[in-house]
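Structure ticket #2291
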Amino acid sequence: MAWEYTDKVKEYYRKPKNVGEVENPNGIGEVGSITCGDALRLTLKVDPETEKIQDAKFQTFGCGSAIASSSALTEMIIGKTVAEAEKITNQDIVDFLGGLPAQKMHCSVMGREALEAAIADYRGEKSENRADTDEDEVVCHCFGVTDKKIERAVMENDLSTIEEVMNYTKAGGGCTSCHEQIEEIIHKVREKKGLDRKKRAPEAEEKKKGKLTNLQKIKLIEKTIEQEIRPELQKDGGDIELIDIDGNRVIVAFKGMCRGCKSAGLTLNGIQNKLREMVTPEIEVESA
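Resolution: structure written out below.
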């Protein structure tokens, strides 16, 4: 599925600043994993007397948004004190770049986590983002995301759906077997904050209870394609046509710019994830 990027994101991706590693760093933060698709190493040079960050460089394995977010982060923290830098949130990184697509918000979260890990290393402390403690439970085994990371993302960014959690943490973006547990975490955190989850359409309530009839499922699939999927594809000259629904098999055909696109496989996967989120985790999407 195609995404829109701001000019600043494009600039920081095409001409990233502060790439590499600081010589003799006294603060190192490493987050993510290459096997999970995203990894970031942030190195800092902090003046021990003033605690000002004199230099910051990054090395990342990831998409253009990951490169842009990491590059932006280094620009934001150079010249700041450690105390000032640790107040930077993932939303501050997004705002600096003029915005990120919803599906790429996890790149800004990774930058924030790397900064916290580097500051913790500078202070000789253990980063709160390490996921190797006995108290932390891995919820999403596809991407190695823990319950604590999901809880924090929900709390700090006011998330209320599995899709939003997926955008910020990647949790639930693989086999979907963790979706029920993610829902429980969302409910627990929002209940603790005294917030109601977003109101659901009647079909969504029935879906949550596992009571969707065949007719309700078909209507919800059609509604999701028309209201959530087609508008995104049409922004870039693409389109999609629903060909058939056979049980949990959804057959679609690409139109416009999407037809014959090299990224059609990724687009199809994005459509499947959206339908699994909005309708049922058993959905399988095929191209006609």
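Closing remark: Strands lie at 27-33, 38-46, 53-61, 138-140, 145-146, 238-246, 249-256, 284-287.
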